[in-house]
Task: inverse folding
């Protein structure tokens, strides 16, 4: 294999690789703005200047292919000086409005100016003035003054999002970025340009001025928006989710995530319609009660029915652990096989990039456990007639909303003798519940989702519920979380009184004589791995941050995996 | 062990101690009749130099705060006394503090917030008489923090001179 | 009538004592402030004159805290001992020569005991019980240390004090304080006749009253208040009162034994009417006492506290030999010059 020497160390490379690719693969830092591993090489920022022996001038590492025997210096005096000059040019017309800019704190220009700049400006003339606060599309705000014209956003929309919506206009110091006249920058991946923009020129309107990045904690999690299960970071301040950003996972979502996931998949966690504490129906009113009362009520009510009088709706929104506990509960305690889940397919809403038709994060996981959309000719379609014929008297719904999916079900549900609902937010079904348990959202619990490719991926709690202490239970902590006391407003964010479904189910099951001996969700998961052979020998640590892929030709044949 | 030595050997009169005691007592006697330094505080106020660091306040320019809610004061504050929530405004500065609260029970008057402020928007005033009877009273919102720039000229000049 | 006069005398003595102690505290605070270039209490009443009564009231209304592990009875008894002893001592100290009141000859003393000096020495020895017991009963290591220091200090200095007084007794040939005072007419003050004895007595008196530089039983920096750490409210007030009462006794004794009592040479030679002389004498006596009280305060705010080993060294290696030297000197004087 050919070898290239970078800063005195030899690295092997595949022919065709550029210097910056070899360097970044081997952990050698070469500063860059316009180069991105997934985008074409543009070579216009000139920040990646390196010195190559026997070449007369400095070359840009992003556009120079490595060659056998090449000797590259990234830290030689000439290279450092060259980068200093580039930095000075870039800063000439960049406004010093970091205090206002949302990018501050995660800004490549700030970092590189600090690391590779001279630390002062020789420019005394008036800076360039360009349009500010331009709304490019529904989610993206553009500030032309801050733009360093790296063209990453233009190349992203063309090459990755396959929607050629942005372009440079004008020349020289008047150059700016625009959409075509009358068009909006509205492709379903538009917000990724905010992540790849090395400066604060493109900002997220949804997150605009909400918080400084250093005030938040980041938790590695999975987006629950569709069967793709994009890896994300959940950014939390004062126990409130403020934004989601994609987390790099080459095989699942690469560097990207869709706007739907980013904008719509966290607001329900903060919402006011969260179910806060268990409710029990008394005189046709849902009344807030404590956990013990709700559980003992559920226990005494469940004893009135037996066997196939029960129907259980599992949830593709809940974790594998939650559904496993539910499955075990219905088989061992309720002694019924009447368990199925409601599919949430949006036909046609799918592309080759990330978005999937299946709008639930864990339907593959449910199928792995053996739960399907219909069981013993019981499914969402046949549910109402079975209720009306009184062959089903008790329905348990976990984290789903059957009435929203099938509005005709409304009358049938009122004919039930008992309806137990586990829900995160108020929905169309919750109002008919006899017993309503508050379920923790994906951002409040540990667990596992299985995506359509068979990736088993971990979610971690980012928001504390009422029984959780951020520091004792190992949640990510910002500086405010670490040092705040109960007297500080900024550390007293709302904590919802909710629990993971498996916890609630275990409590009820144990009261009914079952042996649900779990302390943590990992205990449940270990039991799953003993029963599901595709998951054998897994635990939370081996799943890790990037997930574990199930490989099984049998599952592909059964169309459980793609 | 090293031999301890006095700086100076004592002579006889010093050694019998009584003379030295009398000397000391004459000194205190002299002070008995000297003018006193006490300031009669609530009636006689302290006149602070511009370098004095009283409670931090927000500078108000033309009826609006200069602050752009960058949150640097909040970040640098070693006592975590400052909470800032930014919001968008139609003004040129784009961003303003929707909420700016200083917990005066946490504040240690170090002046880091003033030092770090890129807009000269938060400065240390000369106000030091801070008394609260309730916890809630100690959290100063924008209503108590905003002070017209005219009253803070002294301090702003001082900051500029010592940058 | 026979009972009424002593009772009136006792009532007046205690009343005056309480009043004087209150204002002694006020002056202590004022003088300390002046020495430190401050102004001292000036907020309560004109010139802060009501500060001390206000403090007394405050002490009355404070919560009386007794530590859980304290020996309750002794804890309460100790301040009573201290105060009673201090007050009883006043009984045998005269405040002036006999005066004529409503045609009656009144002695300005509650009990004219023949062995007054002995009485005083005896009571001073009992006084230490108050402090030692309080330190022990508090069940607190600092208090106990304070109490122990106090007894050790008393024993060390009582010795030289006693021997110094013997010098005075040799000269006056009586244990009655009246006789001792009357023996010092003119310039024949014991302070001039036996200066060494005077100095040792004054130093011992400071030590006996636990005043700086001898306040090791309290020693705030090391013992957080010493024997009265665990005392509050009225009990603390009693210790406070006893300390200042002891200070007044010490001043009275120093004046009576060494500074000629109510005698001042040129006053006695000036021809004054029979009626005025006793009053003026009382005035002179009290003026001398006041000056000594001032010296007590003055010394407190000038001289730092001894270290414990220095205290013991001074007591046993300096004070005791010095008082013996004084005894020899007085004996020689009396033997050769018959004064």
Result:
């Amino acid at each position: 294999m050919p070898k290239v020497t970078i800063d005195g160390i030899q690295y092997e490379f595949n022919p065709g690789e550029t210097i910056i690719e070899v360097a970044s693969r081997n952990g050698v830092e070469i500063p860059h703005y316009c180069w991105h591993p997934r985008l074409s090489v543009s070579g216009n920022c000139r920040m990646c200047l390196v010195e190559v022996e026997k070449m007369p001038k400095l070359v840009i590492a992003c556009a120079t292919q490595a060659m056998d025997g090449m000797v590259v210096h990234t830290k030689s005096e000439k290279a450092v000086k060259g980068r200093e000059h580039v930095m000075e040019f870039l800063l000439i017309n960049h406004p010093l409005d970091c205090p206002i800019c949302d990018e501050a704190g995660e800004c490549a220009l700030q970092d590189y100016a600090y690391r590779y700049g001279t630390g002062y400006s020789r420019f005394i003339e008036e800076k360039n003035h360009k349009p500010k606060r331009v709304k490019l599309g529904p989610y993206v705000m553009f500030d032309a003054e801050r733009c360093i014209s790296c063209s990453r956003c233009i190349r992203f929309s063309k090459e990755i999002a396959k929607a050629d919506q942005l372009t440079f206009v004008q020349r020289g110091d008047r150059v700016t970025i625009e959409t075509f006249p009358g068009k909006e920058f509205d492709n379903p991946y538009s917000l990724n340009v905010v992540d790849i923009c090395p400066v604060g020129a493109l900002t997220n309107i949804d997150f605009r001025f909400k918080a400084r990045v250093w005030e938040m904690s980041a938790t590695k999690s999975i987006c629950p928006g569709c069967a793709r299960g994009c890896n994300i970071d959940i950014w939390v301040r004062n126990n409130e989710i403020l934004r989601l950003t994609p987390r790099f996972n080459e095989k699942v979502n690469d560097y990207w995530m869709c706007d739907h996931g980013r904008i719509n998949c966290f607001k329900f966690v903060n919402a006011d319609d969260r179910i806060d504490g268990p409710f029990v129906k008394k005189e046709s009113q849902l009344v807030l009660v404590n956990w013990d009362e709700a559980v003992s009520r559920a226990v005494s009510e469940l004893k009135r029915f037996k066997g196939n009088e029960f129907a259980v709706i599992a949830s593709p929104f809940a974790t594998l652990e939650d559904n496993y506990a539910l499955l075990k509960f219905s088989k061992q305690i309720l002694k019924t096989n009447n368990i199925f889940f409601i599919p949430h397919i949006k036909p046609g809403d799918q592309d080759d990039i990330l978005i999937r038709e299946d709008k639930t994060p864990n339907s593959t996981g449910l199928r792995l456990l053996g739960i399907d959309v219909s069981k013993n000719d019981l499914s969402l379609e046949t549910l109402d007639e079975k209720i009306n014929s009184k062959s089903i008297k008790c329905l348990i719904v976990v984290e789903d909303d059957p009435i929203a999916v099938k509005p005709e079900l409304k009358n049938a549900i009122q004919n039930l003798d008992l309806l137990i609902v586990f829900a995160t937010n108020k929905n169309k079904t919750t109002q008919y519940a006899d017993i309503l348990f508050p379920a923790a959202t994906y951002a409040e619990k540990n667990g596992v989702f299985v995506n359509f490719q068979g990736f088993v991926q971990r979610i971690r709690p980012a928001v504390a519920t009422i029984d959780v202490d951020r520091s004792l239970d190992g949640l990510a902590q910002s500086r405010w979380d670490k040092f705040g006391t109960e007297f500080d407003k900024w550390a007293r964010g709302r904590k919802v009184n909710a629990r993971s479904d498996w916890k609630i189910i275990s409590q009820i099951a144990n009261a009914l004589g079952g042996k649900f001996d779990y302390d943590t969700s990992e205990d449940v998961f270990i039991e799953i791995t003993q029963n599901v052979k595709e998951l054998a020998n897994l635990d939370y640590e081996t799943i890790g941050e990037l997930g574990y892929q199930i490989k099984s030709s049998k599952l592909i044949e059964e169309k459980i995996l793609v | 062990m090293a031999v301890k030595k006095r700086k100076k050997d004592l002579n006889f009169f010093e050694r019998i101690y009584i003379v030295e005691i009398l000397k000391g007592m004459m000194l205190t006697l002299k002070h008995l009749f000297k003018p006193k330094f006490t300031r009669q505080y609530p009636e006689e106020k302290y006149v602070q130099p511009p370098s004095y660091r009283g409670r931090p306040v927000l500078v108000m320019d033309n009826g609006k705060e200069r602050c752009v809610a960058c949150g640097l004061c909040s970040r640098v504050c070693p006592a975590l006394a400052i909470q800032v929530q930014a919001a968008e405004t139609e003004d040129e500065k784009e961003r303003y503090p929707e909420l700016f609260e200083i917990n005066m029970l946490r504040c240690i008057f170090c002046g880091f917030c003033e030092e770090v402020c890129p807009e000269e928007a938060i400065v240390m005033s000369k106000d030091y008489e801070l008394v609260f009877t309730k916890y809630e009273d100690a959290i100063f919102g924008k209503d108590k923090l905003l002070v017209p720039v005219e009253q803070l000229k002294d301090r702003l000049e001082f900051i500029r001179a010592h940058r | 009538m026979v009972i009424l006069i002593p009772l009136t005398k006792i009532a007046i003595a205690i009343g005056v004592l309480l009043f004087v102690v209150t204002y002694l505290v006020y002056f202590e605070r004022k003088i300390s402030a002046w020495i430190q270039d401050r102004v001292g209490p000036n907020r309560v009443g004109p010139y802060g004159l009501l500060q001390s009564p206000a403090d007394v009231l405050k002490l009355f209304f404070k919560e009386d805290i007794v530590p859980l592990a304290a020996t309750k009875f002794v804890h309460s008894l100790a301040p009573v001992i201290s105060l009673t002893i201090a007050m009883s001592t006043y009984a045998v100290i005269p405040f002036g020569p006999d005066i004529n009141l409503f045609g009656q000859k009144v002695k300005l003393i509650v009990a004219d005991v023949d062995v007054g000096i002995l009485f005083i020495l005896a009571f001073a020895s009992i006084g230490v019980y108050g402090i030692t017991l309080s330190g022990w009963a508090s069940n607190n290591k600092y208090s106990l240390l304070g109490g122990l220091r106090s007894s050790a200090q008393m024993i060390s200095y009582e010795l030289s004090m006693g021997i110094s007084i013997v010098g005075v007794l040799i000269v006056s040939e009586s244990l009655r304080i009246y006789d001792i005072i009357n023996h010092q007419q003119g310039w024949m003050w014991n302070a001039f006749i036996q200066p060494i004895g005077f100095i040792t007595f004054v130093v011992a008196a400071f030590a006996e009253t636990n005043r700086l530089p001898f306040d090791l039983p309290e020693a705030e920096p090391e013992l957080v208040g010493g024997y009265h750490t665990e005392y509050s409210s009225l009990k603390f007030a009693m210790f406070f009162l006893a300390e200042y009462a002891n200070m007044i006794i010490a001043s009275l004794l120093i004046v009576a034994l060494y500074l000629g009592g109510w005698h001042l040479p040129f006053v006695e030679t000036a021809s004054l009417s029979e009626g005025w002389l006793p009053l003026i004498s009382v005035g002179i006596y009290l003026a001398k006492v006041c000056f000594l009280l001032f010296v007590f305060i003055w010394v407190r705010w000038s001289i730092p506290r001894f270290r414990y080993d220095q205290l013991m060294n001074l007591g046993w290696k300096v004070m005791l030999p010095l008082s013996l030297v004084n005894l020899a000197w007085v004996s020689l004087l009396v033997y050769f010059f018959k004064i």
